[in-house]
Backbone:
């Protein structure tokens, strides 16, 4: 498999924070990379303003300079496009890429006034895993990623991330740590045992796919519990599905995901299951759903029947 990575840039220092992380991933995966800059339509910025060919050439020159961040320059292409940044980037990712790598604050100024965040739009609409580099992450990867925390809550939605993690983990030799979180309650001990059994079934399936996997159960609020384990385990990455629904507040992707992105000191790999509605046919969306449905069926079959 030849991996293809999309890296959105907008010429700011904030967006360029994605470059060292994308470069490291491209090197380790042997991936082809495209650096994309999407200019908003001129009429959406100021009346009568037009993007000149000179401005486009300057942007392309900036993207060419960004190629210096990558080990294999011949596998890096650049593109200057025009339109709504979130929509264009989501469409690009959906149609042609296996992974998007972008900073959490891709744009500022005008693009944040009355418009959805570009990063959230790509997560929500692309149907592609998006590796977000949060504000608190180091400027460069301190080491190759080896340990990945994957929070799961027992839902099919949360499990969909596993079908995206498995091929990456096999290729990059990641240790995947499945995390189950139970609320603090009188039934916490019983819930923890049930959660551990659930995670054990998932870990066994990941082992069958040649992915090194272990499981951990914690109690408390999901967001803080995820970050606490990431710190305690010296994790290099957090990977999670987000539960938000289309049609709601366009700036919200999921409260737990938002919390993690706001406070994480490691990159966060996100996947939005609702984006499967954008696939051209049900067959294209089938692999992720088939994976999680099979696991859920196996787990339910092994659960004791109520007397």
Residues:
């Amino acid at each position: 498999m030849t991996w293809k990575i999309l890296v959105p840039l907008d010429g700011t220092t904030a967006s360029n924070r994605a470059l060292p992380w994308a470069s490291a991933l491209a090197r380790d995966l042997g991936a082809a990379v495209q650096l994309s800059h999407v200019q908003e339509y001129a009429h959406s910025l100021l009346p009568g303003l037009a993007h000149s060919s000179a401005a486009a050439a300057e942007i392309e020159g900036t993207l060419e300079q960004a190629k210096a961040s990558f080990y294999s320059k011949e596998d890096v292409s650049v593109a200057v496009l025009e339109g709504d940044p979130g929509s264009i980037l989501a469409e690009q990712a959906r149609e042609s890429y296996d992974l998007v790598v972008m900073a959490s604050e891709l744009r500022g100024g005008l693009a944040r006034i009355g418009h959805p965040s570009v990063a959230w739009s790509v997560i929500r609409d692309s149907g592609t895993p998006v590796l977000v580099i949060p504000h608190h992450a180091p400027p460069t990867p301190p080491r190759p990623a080896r340990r990945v925390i994957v929070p799961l809550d027992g839902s099919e939605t949360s499990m969909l991330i596993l079908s995206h993690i498995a091929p990456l983990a096999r290729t990059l030799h990641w240790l995947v740590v499945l995390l189950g979180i139970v609320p603090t309650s009188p039934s916490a001990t019983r819930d923890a045992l049930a959660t551990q059994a659930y995670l054990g079934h998932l870990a066994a399936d990941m082992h069958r796919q040649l992915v090194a996997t272990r499981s951990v159960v914690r109690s408390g609020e999901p967001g803080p519990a995820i970050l606490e384990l990431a710190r305690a385990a010296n994790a290099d990455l957090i990977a999670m599905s987000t539960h938000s629904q289309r049609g709601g507040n366009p700036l919200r992707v999921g409260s737990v995901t938002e919390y993690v992105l706001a406070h994480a000191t490691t990159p966060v790999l996100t996947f939005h299951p609702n984006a499967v509605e954008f696939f051209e046919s049900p067959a294209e969306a089938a692999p992720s759903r088939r994976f999680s449905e099979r696991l859920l069926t196996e787990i339910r079959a092994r659960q004791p029947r109520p007397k």
About this structure: The domain at 147-302 is CATH 3.40.50.620 (Rossmann fold). The CA atoms of residues 92 and 126 lie 8 Å apart. The chain has two domains: 4-133, 147-302.
